[in-house]
Design brief:
The complex is a heterotrimer of chains A (251), B (228) and C (644). Chain A is an alpha+beta fold and 251 residues long. Chain A contains eight helices and seven strands; from the N terminus they run ββαβββββααααααα. In chain A, strand 1 and strand 2 form a beta hairpin. The radius of gyration of chain A is 20 Å and the shape is elongated. The relative contact order of chain A is 0.14. Chain C is globular, with a radius of gyration of 24 Å. Classes of the chains: A alpha+beta (251), B mainly alpha (228), C alpha+beta (644). Chains A and C meet through helix 1, helix 2 and helix 3 of A and helix 2, helix 4, helix 5, helix 11 and helix 12 of C.
Chain lengths: 251, 228, 644
């Protein structure tokens, strides 16, 4: 199939960018979206021009590196699918496809479609862990966890940190991401000891990074490729309210 | 900043204020609507005028009026702060965006709906509250006591077609605002549970529609079925 | 050069404990005087960096991805082995050790493998304490499954994403140390050279992938945890960015490269669908627990199938050849990976392959669905079936999956001693980057175990032994050795940028991959390997004459990144061929057609090849020098692997 792509090109962080149109021909419906971009990049390269930079790595939908706002949707039109797992059979011959980077003040563009998501790392550094050193831990079966709780914690733990929630949110809010991280540990007995400081510190860092506020629109969960639920956001709020109300932290 | 201001100036804290004030304003709507239903009483407005006099003079109600005012102010102030923050969180927009595929329109347009409601509120207060409180209404005698005839002002106002149209449109906006806002308030407070959330969502929807329909029927009733 | 594996004296079960006592310790107050560089933040790297930080060392960690959490460990599906014997089904440390040694076709060090089995139990405890959500039973205790043909249930798992959950655990530990300031993290930064001062590893030269800036970092020790080199084949289950550059450039500085020809070809991957294909997707091996592998009995039927004259459901039961069940009645569809892969290749070579290209076999769930019902099968494999449907647009509930082997893991890697130190003092290699624990074939659910064992429980002890004997003095990055290395890196980048040829990097990479797959893949022979060596040399010459790299160094330049990696693959590929050619036997993932039993099974030559082949670099285009580390087997008897 033949397509017209409108792609955001931006030389570097400080440069102004613009949408550039590229025709692509002979695309197989069995190609993945990123393979289609590979084909385009090879063409661009053969012409001696600068290929389009985009993030990608595992191409199995698990590393969370790929992004792309495709035709007005984070990770494209298929629900529950990362861009690397999106196949061209979901498009039609002759389609025009717009491809843009994630847009958020907290995700500045490095180049073309590559954005800086290090804000997510910093939020987790603020408390997204259980403080245990290597060694000196109890036997694994000394911490029994009811299956239903373990399953719920797992649902939160499946977050791949891709940033689609921020990209899709009208407010560029990171609440779905932060809530998945907080609630996973809040539900497990291992995470209980630090649950108050964790909730306070991670929310504070989230705000410092310049993400918007969650206004419960729900775009995040609808576009999340791994189906993180809005329930986590409610749980984060419970955690935050009870933490700020009862912690000894006066600052 | 101490912990208190820090908590309530965080994005989560501001949403807590939004939801508490929002739910409080919902409770006001119920009281207001019940009072308004006395307009339908076929007594030439006697009950309604007594009621409005009570509302304007009772010290408890007058105190609550200030609380209500604060509720509005906090709700509006935090809405503005959050909206500005959210706009700043995405300085460069998308060339193509299809949010309709992932979220309801009303949820994304609470600011717009709120603004419509605010404009309506000003008109509404100007027309009824200001004259009732500060003078400008004719007098009427009910059981030997003289009252301001607010009833007459209501009936007269709702004979004007564009006035009725403003009311009905505002109530549609309010309904959409509440359809998102009611259940969202519970989510903002973390009050969700597998067992109760589905009920809260359905109740919120019904509440929004019924209350706003109740308010909207009044101008329509007086416009179509009532002659002075 | 004499290779000293530094295996401690004493009986197998006591070696590690004795060694831990004998290694020198660094005083807690002095640990902060030592700097350690960790390259790569997968399971092996992140766990090591976090643990070093906890101990008090100053750590600098590097990864080329935008976040440490994206390292390709994340893609591991199946699980992690540990000799916990929670299921009371007869597992023990010795059994895990034995299975691993046997599974590796007796080409791994006994002492290392035993230690791996010993610390496997600590890994599970550690991960659970971090909050890793392993699968659980209703009573709240951990669940296990049997995996990869093991006779006991010792595999701990987290749905189909054990790798992600374990990596998130290690990443959270790493984050905690970053927050404490003990680890400084450098994402989107790629190591391009190792710096040696006075014969010791003292730092690295890196390129900032955003700005292109070439920088040096110095330390008292350098740990490479940069994964495997499966992407030599272009098509593999590795991530697009997985590369061998760090390890290969260390090799060029003198680190020996061991057993490069040991490549694991995973039997259950989604077949190639076209020339545009950029990577291959693995379907968890657990599918073989219920799926039956078959091809049509006759070439004629297979041909009609490929042409589309008939569909798979038209083939009658008696015309189907369940070749694994037929040849290996005891293990059936659950034979080890190397055996399953080779047999798939055999039937396709006979012309009985299916799918458009004829390079696929069926994995059929019809019987399992009939037996257990679709809901039961969906509960077990639903996400895998979904993934298959997403990629192929075929519904595996209605027609059998098509699968084909694909390059998955490389058992070879930098040679290390028992302390995980390479032959260069101060340079360590952990995880898939080293060669140590899997011999010639890795068992399922053992890669995660090894990565975390190395990072959490082995190297934190052994690196102290080295540092305790190293003076505190730091080497400045203005040292001539750093300047020289930087200049060489810059010169190489400029050379690549200056060629301005006609063929793209991917073009060369695909051509190399084809050569490797055809002649150094699932089956190899001397003639083909000799031919491949010539072809690789020709291709390499052409690369340096005709590759097209655009742009400049001082920017985010994806073509330059790839060109550096492919330049190294073009050298490493030749070493793999050399190694495969010299090893005149078949073992595990290395199958030489000349050396097979009458039943087409791998025929080992323990008399002449029970050694680790560690190769020394002598210059591009020169033949490498072979060093042998003889393998001593005192606790297991070498036997022909049999799965009949």
């Amino acid at each position: 199939m033949d397509l017209t792509l409108k792609v955001w090109r931006q030389k570097d962080k400080d440069a102004a960018g613009s949408m550039v149109t590229y025709p692509v021909k002979g695309i197989s419906p069995d190609m993945s979206f990123l393979e289609m971009l590979d084909v385009l990049n090879e063409d661009i390269l053969r012409r001696g021009e600068d290929p389009i930079a985009f993030d990608h790595d595992c191409r199995e939908g698990i590393c969370g590196m790929c992004s792309l706002f495709i035709n007005g949707r984070a990770h494209g039109p298929e629900r529950g699918t990362t861009t690397c797992q999106l196949h061209m059979r979901h498009f039609n011959d002759g389609d025009t496809i717009t491809i843009e980077p994630w847009r958020a003040a907290a995700f500045p563009v490095h180049k073309d479609l590559v954005v800086d998501r290090s804000a997510f790392d910093r939020i987790q550094q603020a408390g997204g862990y259980v403080s245990v050193n290597t060694g000196g831990v109890p036997d694994a079966n000394a911490i029994p966890i009811p299956k239903s709780i373990a399953d719920k914690a797992f649902d939160a733990a499946t977050c791949i940190q891709c940033g689609a929630c921020v990209a899709a949110c009208k407010n560029a809010s990171a609440m779905l991401f932060v809530s998945a991280k907080v609630s996973q540990l809040a539900m497990l007995p291992q995470g209980k000891a630090e649950r108050k400081t964790r909730a306070e510190n991670m929310v504070a860092q989230m705000d410092i990074e310049g993400f918007g506020a969650c206004t419960n629109i729900g775009s995040c969960a609808a576009e999340c490729p791994v189906g993180i639920s809005l329930e986590n956001i409610a749980m984060l709020r419970r955690e935050y309210i009870s933490a700020t109300a009862t912690s000894e932290n006066l600052a | 900043m101490n912990w208190f201001t820090k908590t309530f100036s965080s994005t989560i804290g501001r949403k807590i204020i939004m939801s508490i004030t929002g739910l409080f304003l919902c409770s006001f709507l119920v009281v207001h609507l019940i009072g308004n239903l006395q307009l339908f009483k076929n007594d030439g407005g006697a009950a309604f005028n007594v009621y409005s006099h009570f509302m304007g003079t009772n010290p408890v109600i007058r105190t609550m009026e200030i609380v209500l005012l604060l509720g509005f102010l906090f709700h509006i102030y935090d809405a503005i702060v959050l909206t500005r923050r959210n706009k700043a969180a995405r300085p460069v927009g998308y060339a193509e965006n299809r949010p309709g595929e992932n979220s309801p329109w009303s949820s994304r347009n609470m600011g717009l709906l709120g603004t419509v409601i605010l404009v309506f509120l000003i008109i509404h207060l100007w027309n009824f509250f200001v004259p009732a409180r500060f003078g400008g209404l004719e007098g009427v005698v009910v059981e030997d006591v003289e009252y301001d005839n607010l009833y007459l002002r209501v009936v007269q106002s709702f004979q004007i077609w564009w006035y009725v149209a403003i009311y009905v449109l505002a109530m549609v906006a309010l309904a959409y605002h509440l359809i998102h806002g009611f259940q969202s308030a519970f989510q903002s407070l973390g009050l969700t549970h597998k067992k109760y959330t589905p009920f809260i969502q359905k109740f919120g929807y019904a509440f929004s529609v019924i209350v706003c329909l109740g308010f909207a029927i009044i101008p329509l009733y007086f416009f179509f079925f009532f002659e002075l | 050069m004499i290779l000293d594996s530094k295996i401690p004296e004493g009986n197998l079960a006591e070696k590690w404990d004795k060694h831990k006592f004998n290694v020198k310790l660094v005083n807690p107050a002095n640990k902060r005087k030592y700097d350690i560089i960790v390259v790569g933040t997968g399971l092996a790297g992140a766990s090591a960096a976090a643990t070093f930080g906890e101990l008090g060392y100053n750590v600098k960690a590097f990864c080329f991805q935008d976040s440490p959490r994206r390292a390709h460990s994340i893609a591991a599906q199946g699980g992690i082995n540990a000799a916990k014997n929670y299921q009371n089904d007869g597992d023990s440390i010795f059994r895990l050790f034995y299975d691993t040694i046997k599974g590796g076709d007796y080409r791994a060090r006994e002492a290392n493998v035993y230690r791996l089995a010993q610390v496997s139990v600590d890994i599970i405890d550690q991960c659970v304490a971090q909050g890793v959500p392993f699968a659980r039973e209703y009573g709240g205790l951990l669940a296990n499954r049997s995996f990869g043909g093991a006779q006991v249930s010792r595999t701990f798992y987290a749905r189909g994403q054990t790798g992600q959950q374990l990596l998130l655990g290690a990443y959270s530990a790493l984050n905690r140390q970053i927050a404490y300031g003990k680890v400084k993290m450098y994402p989107r930064t790629e190591m391009l050279d190792l710096v040696m001062v006075d014969g010791k590893a003292r730092g690295i030269v890196v390129r900032n992938l955003i700005t292109g800036k070439i920088e040096s970092h110095s330390a008292h020790a350098v740990v490479l945890a940069t994964g495997g080199y499966g992407n030599v084949f272009f098509l593999s289950t590795n991530a697009m960015g997985s590369n061998a550059t760090a390890a290969w450039r260390a090799h060029k500085k003198g680190a020996l490269f061991a057993n490069p020809c040991y490549t694991q070809i995973h039997p259950t991957c989604i077949p190639v669908s076209g020339g545009y294909q950029s990577k291959l997707t693995l379907m968890s091996e657990s599918l073989r627990n219920d799926g039956r592998v078959w091809v049509p009995k006759t070439v004629e039927l297979a041909q009609r199938l490929r042409k589309g004259e008939i569909t798979v459901n038209d083939i009658k039961e008696e015309d189907r050849d369940y070749y694994l069940e037929r040849k290996y009645p005891a293990f059936g569809n659950l034979v080890p990976r190397d055996v399953a892969s080779r047999n798939a290749k055999l039937v396709c070579d006979e012309g009985r392959g299916v799918g458009g290209s004829g390079l696929a076999v069926y994995l059929d769930f019809a019987d399992a669905i009939k037996r257990e019902g679709q809901p039961a099968i969906a509960a077990k494999y639903g996400n895998l079936f979904e993934m298959y449907a997403k990629i192929t647009d075929e519904n595996p509930y209605e027609r059998p999956m098509r699968i084909y082997p694909a390059v998955h893991y490389t058992m070879g890697g930098l040679w290390v001693d028992y302390n995980l130190m390479t032959n260069i003092p101060g340079l360590y290699a952990t995880g898939e980057c080293n060669f140590s624990d899997h011999g010639a074939n890795r068992l399922g659910a053992s890669a995660l175990m090894q990565g975390l064992a190395d990072g959490y429980f082995v190297i934190p002890y052994t690196i102290g032994d080295y540092l305790a004997k190293t003076p505190y003095d730091k080497v400045g990055t203005d040292h001539p050795a750093f300047k020289e290395a930087e200049a060489a890196v810059i010169a190489k980048n400029n050379q690549l940028l200056g060629i301005n040829g006609t063929r793209t990097v991917d073009d060369f990479h695909k051509a190399l991959g084809q050569i490797m797959w055809d002649y150094c893949g699932m089956a190899r022979n001397a003639e083909g390997l000799r031919f491949a060596k010539q072809e690789i040399r020709k291709l390499r010459d052409e690369f340096w004459r005709d590759v097209k790299v655009v742009g400049v160094n001082e920017e985010l330049n994806i073509t330059l990144e790839k060109a550096n990696r492919v330049a190294d693959f073009l050298e490493l590929g030749e070493l793999m061929v050399d190694d495969a050619l010299h090893r005149n036997e078949s073992c595990g993932g290395h199958f030489r057609e000349e050396y097979q039993t009458p039943e087409n099974e791998a025929l080992r030559d323990d008399e002449n090849f029970a050694y680790v082949a560690a190769w020394e670099f002598t210059g591009v285009g020169n033949d490498p020098v072979l060093h042998k580390e003889e393998l001593q087997f005192e606790n297991v008897k070498l036997t022909q692997r049999s799965y009949k």
